[in-house]
Amino acid sequence: MLEEEGFSVEVVRTGEEVLQRYQKALKKKRPFDLVFLDLTIANEMGGAETQEKLLQIDSDVKSIVTSVYSQSPVMSHYTRYGFKGLIPKPFSRKKCPGGKKSAGW
Fold first, then answer.
1. How many alpha carbons lie under 13 Å from residue 55 in its C-beta half-sphere?
2. What's the whole-number mean pLDDT along residues 70-95?
3. What percentage of the chain has pLDDT greater than the value 90?
4. Burial of 94 per CB tally in 10 Å (0-12, 13-18, 19+)
5. Taking the model in full, what pTM does it have?
6. Using an 8 Å Cβ cutoff, are 75 and 56 in contact?
7. Which has fewest Cβ within 10 Å: 59, 64, 70, 72?
8. What's the rounded Cα separation, in Å, for the pair 83 and 80?
9. Which residues are CB-neighbours of 98 under 8 A, at least 6 positions away?
10. Average pLDDT of 91-95?
11. Which residues touch 3 (CB under 8 Å, ≥6 apart)?
12. Does residue 104 carry a pLDDT above 80?
């Protein structure tokens, strides 16, 4: 869906991979425009902890939290955790109306 909107997409499986790729992109002077973080990753660092570490690396990181657990405090108060937005799962075009133009990306 994002590639159809003209974005380049990198997919990783763990929070550690997110941190490694983000740091690498910063060093190359090509920071990510947006990072999507899943709140819950089985047996791995989840989105809230990854976000906390990303903010230590780059206080201007733009992250979106996503989860099927809509009752989570992180989902209810995402800005307190440094997220710029949220998208509940499952994803659909309806939840992202207008694509990148309406989001200002």
1. 15
2. 86
3. 63
4. exposed
5. 0.82
6. no
7. 59
8. 7
9. none
10. 65
11. 9
12. no
**CB burial of residue 74 (10 Å; 0-12, 13-18, 19+):** buried
User: Peptide bond before 90: cis, by omega within 30 degrees of 0?
Assistant: yes
Amino acid in the structure at residue 71: Q
Phi/psi at 67 (nearest 5 deg)? -170, 155
Q: pLDDT value at position 56?
A: 97
Alpha helix segments (H runs only) across the chain = 15-27, 47-57, 73-76, 99-103
Strands across the sheet with 35-38, in order? 35-38, 63-67, 85-88
Give domain limits for the chain.
32-96
Q: 46, 15 in Cβ contact below 8 A? A: yes
d(CA 5, CA 77): 28
Fill in the DSSP letter of residue 35: E
Mean pLDDT within 12-22: 95
Q: Say which CATH topology domain 32-96 has.
A: Rossmann fold (3.40.50)
- Which residue has tokens 């209810």? 76
Question: What pLDDT score was predicted for residue 70?
Answer: 79
